[in-house]
Design goal:
Order of helices and strands: EHEHEHEHEHHHHHHHHHHHHHHH
CATH superfamily of the largest domain: DNA Cyclobutane Dipyrimidine Photolyase, subunit A, domain 3
CATH architecture of the largest domain: Orthogonal Bundle
Number of strands: 5
Shape: globular
Distance between the termini: 63 Å
Number of helices: 19
CATH topology of the largest domain: DNA Cyclobutane Dipyrimidine Photolyase, subunit A, domain 3
Strand order of the largest sheet: 3-2-1-4-5
Largest sheet: 5 strands, parallel
Oligomer: single chain
Length: about 450
DNA sequence: TGAAATGTTGGGGCG
DNA sequence: ACGCCCCAACATTTC
């Protein structure tokens, strides 16, 4: 075969890349192509896009070391592929399979026009592989994870090719837009692998507890790398399995298992989105679709800007805006605050997170928001409302996380930092709480209950 | 992958 | 010594 296009989408890596491997096995000439699809890029440019641009630059560099290079084009994928196929004489397109509603539709259309081969790798198990015995998808995490774990594990990761065939000089490539550096997340494959190695060499063994501590480096922090495939999900899961097998200390082994479960949550939400694409627009649970969310522009703005008056919420929201990433525990706290304390539609929060998270992924982000809002599959019950002060005391006991992100509170003592308004002697350039949590909690219980009741009355 | 409200228990102070 | 109360600590139920 003459030429084959390796269509790079969410697999910006040379390690364990089935689509690249497939291309190399079927042709001597492989053209790595990335298409900047306006339908997937944000306006204005999001943190996620900037991270992507950095990762593209790094992939191009890595490809050049191997003798190849990355072709970048901007436009509708179908039109771009049409052009590149014509220019290069490519006879096949090899790509990693994607399961989002947009990706599925795109790939179906393109598959009708071109010989497109899609291969696994975005998830360990594709959504069609984890089903109940009657063929229905799971909507509860625990049985999903049980079946997931019972499926055969992926084999050894694919090796990085020693060398790659050159790409025709005449093939035009656009320049990659400017990016910026996000602290802690260098956008290249080597940094991604180093981060995973570091995490799996120590923090994973105390993950069960440390993952909740806001000021600690206790989580893997690989989400941005999984988002764009700088790391292979299969390799991550494989290594988690290996660690569980090899770790003798029971607490440490349990921690490794907890981390594997987090990877499986990701797979669960990919499956949910694939089988229930409607979750991207509306509540999974019918009985909360009529929920009367508040139209509270001021509240939403205070939440977005980290000016709610609740230190832990504000620290988290500022971490997001300033760094492009937020600690997972903080995501739950801020999501609970928006949906329960402010009673603002979870979709507002979902959208804001997607604009600012460098790891922003439709399936995981939507799953997480619907979980917290109580509207999703296997979601937290509506009455499970986080108390931001208690969460702060539990998971940032010394206020280190708060002080790091809310400089106005840098000099506040530990006793006062979780609820500074309770000390009348404190004079701070910091807002008073925009809601009283006790009042807001009662309000949320009533409003959620009413929504459920309305639905029951209507469906009679 | 909550938290508040309510219930239960048991030790200690005290008349 | 005894009964009574208080309340912390823990358990259970409820939202």
């Amino acid at each position: 075969m003459k030429n084959i296009i390796w269509w790079v989408r969410r697999d910006l890596r040379l390690h364990d890349n089935a689509a690249l491997d497939h291309a190399l096995q079927h042709s001597e000439y492989v053209i790595p192509l990335f298409i900047l699809d306006p339908a997937l890029l944000s306006t204005p440019i999001s943190n996620r896009d900037r991270f992507l641009f950095g990762a593209l630059r790094a992939l191009d560099k890595d490809l050049q070391i191997k003798g190849s290079r990355l072709i970048v084009r901007r436009g509708n994928p179908r039109l771009i592929l049409h052009k590149v196929v014509k220019e290069s004489g490519a006879e096949m397109i090899s790509a990693e399979a994607d399961f989002s509603p947009y990706a599925k539709k795109r790939d179906e259309e393109i598959g009708r026009q071109f010989p497109l081969v899609t291969l696994g790798g975005l998830t360990v198990h594709p959504p069609q592989a984890v089903l109940k015995s009657d063929g229905d998808p799971y909507t509860v995490y625990t049985p999903f994870s049980r079946v997931w774990k019972s499926l055969p594990q992926p084999g050894q990761p694919l090796k990085v090719p020693e060398t790659l065939p050159p790409v025709p000089k005449l093939l035009f490539s656009e320049s990659i837009p400017e990016s910026e550096v996000f602290e802690g997340f260098p956008p290249n494959e080597q940094a991604a692998r180093e981060r995973l190695d570091l995490f799996l060499s120590s923090a994973v063994f105390r993950y069960s507890n440390a993952r909740n501590m806001l000021a600690e480096d206790g989580t893997s922090r690989i989400s941005p790398y999984l988002k764009f495939g700088l790391l292979s999900m299969r390799e991550a899961a494989q290594r988690a399995h290996d660690l569980i097998k090899m770790t003798e200390n029971q607490t440490e082994r349990a921690s490794c298992n907890t981390w594997l479960n987090e990877l499986i949550w990701r797979e669960f939400y990919f499956s949910i989105l694939a089988h229930f694409p409607g979750v991207a627009r509306k509540s999974f649970r019918e009985n909360l679709r009529g929920m009367r969310w508040f139209e509270d522009a001021k509240g939403l703005d205070a939440w977005q800007e980290g000016l709610t008056g609740y230190p832990v919420v504000d620290a988290a929201m500022r971490q997001l805006k300033q760094s492009g990433w937020m600690h997972n525990r903080a995501r739950m706290i801020t999501a609970s605050f928006l949906t329960k304390d402010l009673l603002i539609n979870w979709r507002e929060g979902e959208r804001w997170f997607m604009q600012h998270l460098i790891d922003g992924d439709l399936a995981s982000n939507n799953g997480g928001w619907q979980w917290t809002a109580g509207t999703g599959t296997d979601a937290a019950p509506y009455f499970r409302i986080f108390n931001p002060i208690l969460q702060s005391k539990k998971f940032d006991p010394k206020g280190e996380y708060i002080r790091r992100w809310v400089p106005e509170l840098a000099r506040v003592r530990n006793d006062d930092i979780h609820a500074p308004w309770e000390n009348p002697d404190l004079i701070l350039d910091y807002p008073a709480p925009i809601v009283d949590h006790r009042v807001a909690r009662e309000r949320a219980l009533v409003t959620y209950k009413a929504a459920k009741q309305d639905w029951e009355d209507q469906s009679k």
